[in-house]
Here is the input.
Amino acid sequence: MKMIPKSMWPWLNVLVPVALCSLLMTLRVADPGQVFEKLTLSILDGYQSLEVESSASDEAKPVRLLQIDDEALEAFGQWPWPRDKLGEILITLYEKGATVVGVDLLLAEPDRLSPARFLSKFPNLTIETEQFANAFGYIDNDQFLSDVFSQTPSVLAVAASHKVGGDVDAAIGFAWVGASPDGLFAYNGLLAPTEILKQSGVKVGHIAVRPDADGMLRRIPLLIRAGDLVYPSLFLSMLANEQEASTIIIKGSGGDDSMIETVKVGAYEIPVDSDGEMQVVPHHIIKSFPGLHLTEVLDGLHDEKIAGSVILLGPTATGLMDFHDTPAGLNVPGPALHVAALKQIYAEEYVIRDAVVLGAEWFGALLLSIICIVVALKCGGLVSPAIFVVLIGSYIGSGFWWFSESGHLFDWSLGTMFGLTAFVSSTAVSLLRTESEKGQIRKAFSTYLSPDLVAEISKNPDKLKLGGERREVTVLFADIRGFTTMSEGYKDKPEELTVLLNDLLTPLTYEIMDHKGTIDKYMGDAIMAFWNAPVDVPNHPRIACEVAIGMMIALEVLNKELIGSGRIAEPLKIGIGLNTGEVTVGNLGSEQRFDYSCLGDAINLGARLEGLSKTYGVPIVIGEATYDVLDRPPAGAEVVLLDHVIVKGKSIAVAIYGIIPEQGFPTGWCADHNQFMDHVSDENWKEAEVLLGALQDRDDYPAELLEQCAYRVEQKSSAVRQMHTK
Here is the structure.
């Protein structure tokens, strides 16, 4: 699979979150199945579950629900009651001191129990009609109720209808300031009161409601359009009557869309949404139901509660009332909602969800997603999730703070979803980027390092950047002796030479990599490796020496296999040079291609020491710096001082030492040789000459080393030797 270029990752860290947030935005706007809307509503209900106590007294403008309940039906008979009964109830309430009475009943048809309606069916009947009159002298119940309406500040309910017709005078004026009725809920007509009741001039108020996406009722439209006319809600008309307000002032944004912002009735300015709806606070619904029992009120049991109160007369009996599910509870009677709305207005306690809140939600979502992307990019490890949690917590907390301070219903779910999407996607891209870089590391180092070291270095992808660092390393150079001569025998079959070379280098490479070594490069028949980079390798000089010994043992095993198979006639030999020192190590090369390698004097000296292994006839030569950190000879080998030399291209003398493995090499001469070198250092030439003679008599003493030692005795020189060959 093609690797994504490094230059693309920063763009992906931004483009992927932006693309996903754009997709989320599209889904949020389209909102299939109204999933987001339902989520928003549940969150807004969570705000309002925290009841906010109003600073205004609920009893300063008491509002009472007067229930036409099962007890009332039992006392006064089945529904519907005669209209004169309703008129008498209204007169009684006003006599007890009620300021305004709202009637949440639909009186769209004439009273079928009215004596006048009964007598009209018998036009030729001669009878004293006065005997059918009520206590106030009326035989027409509708006319009686109409006259009661005309003489009291009562409000009558009307219902919105999709059927054309039913126009009625709202008996109140409207003033539009920077707003338009175009945004109101529109209906074709009304289910209006009878003509006789219309003639009373009674104020009317609609009882239309609209459930939300989840079927819950949370808002009541203060105003609706029915045909070409505008009508206030039942409780809004009651509020106007209570304050003797003749005009309702509707204020808007004044822009092209002319959205409604507030509705002002007398001293009360009510914030609404763009549809002209007011959110009803749930705890006012709880306080509104149950109300007062009609029978008890008429018996005079609650006169003190009626006096000075705004009364809403409405049905709560089984089979009469309209039920609504609300966040405050299920099966709430419709009249209780209008009482709750009035209580809320008098308490001046509003919850607001207007264009400003909606704009803040989208702006907050955008800002939070940007911050989350930055956090994901700039902070790593456990820091970014911790900051993300704090950000989300603060964002949600700010929503609750805004609600507690001013009643604004802020939907934090939008910002949370955007922030979560941005953070998770950006973090995911970063993780993919890290894995990609680790893959590049594994690819770059898998052929040079052991799997354990590859896993360790892949934890820090920054090491793949161009550049280097100063580190102390132990470098190893290994070269096949006589390879040039041997390759001449394969000039007609070069592929066999390649196979042979690979068979030789493979076990030597395993020996290095299995002991935390880094393969720098293969140079034809030579290997360069080092320890203590890119990861720390404690006691790396000793490990390198032991690896060199292991390479000699591995070569011995390989020689037996190759000779046994007839692939070679003479055993292969290698020379190894080791040196320790501070070098520059890192990824060296160009942006297009680079290798992990090292540079420095210590590296050059290591290469020269490998060449001296041939000059001195020993398998492994180590530098003075490597020898100095060895507290004891490597296991399974002897160490001998070879000479003090100045290698080609250098001006500083170094002591060089030979490592003689006990397996595969004779070591009996090592003690005599070290004693010989002590005599040379002390310029004790007589004893040195005696020991040299003894070493000459040994069959196992390296001929090249004997030649170097003989030169010292002949010249009687303990001076540093200048080497002229690599």
